[in-house]
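User: I'm curious whether this sequence folds into something compact or stays loose and floppy. Could you predict its structure so I can see for myself?
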Amino acid sequence: MEIGGAECLGAKVIAVSRNQAHTFHKSNQKSVQLLAGLGVQGDAHMGQTVKHRSRVASDPSQPNLRQVHLIHTELHAELRASGFNIAPGQMGENITTQGIKLLDLPRGTRLHIGETAVIEVTGLRNPCSQLDQFQPGLMAAVLDHDAQGKLIRKAGIMAIVLVDGTVSPQDPICTELPPQPYQALERV
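Assistant: Here's the prediction. I'll summarize afterward.
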C-alpha cells in the first residue's frame, strides 16, 4: 500500500508517551498531538529551539532537531532478552514503533503516522549516562560496533514535526524516502 508517495509495509505505533518535566521516563498516553515545527504537545522537549539541557547549556538558539524521539519495540525485546526490564516510554521515547528498521532510515526520511501527522528523521539519539542510572549496564547495551569498528547507536532516532496530527497506538507508519543519494544518520 502507498499513501502520498509513502510506502506502508505494516509498520505501526505500539505506544505514545510524553512528560512535561525534564525527567528520563515518559508516561504512556492514549494519544499525543504532534505540532508542526514544535514537537509533542505537553512534552518538555517541545519547541523550535533545543530543549535538551546539555544542548541548551552550549547554545540555546540551536534549532530543535530532537522534537520527537522514536524507539523500535524490537530494541526493547533485545534488551529484555539480555536481562533488562524495559517498557515503552521508559527510555524517554515519544513513539515506540514496530515493524520498521528505524536505524536504517536515511536522514530526511518522512514518516507518515496515523491520519495526518508527518515527521522528518533528523538523526540518531546519542545515548547518555541516564540510561545507566535507570538500569546499570543499559548504556553499553544500546551501543555496538560494526565489522569495521564503527560505533552503532541503537537508542532510537530523532525527528522534527512537519505536519500536525494525533498519533495513537496501532496507527500505521508509512515511509517516504528522500531523494538519493541517501545520507546516513548521525547523532543529533
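Summary: The longest helix spans residues 73-81. Helices lie at 53-58, 73-81, 130-134, 138-141.
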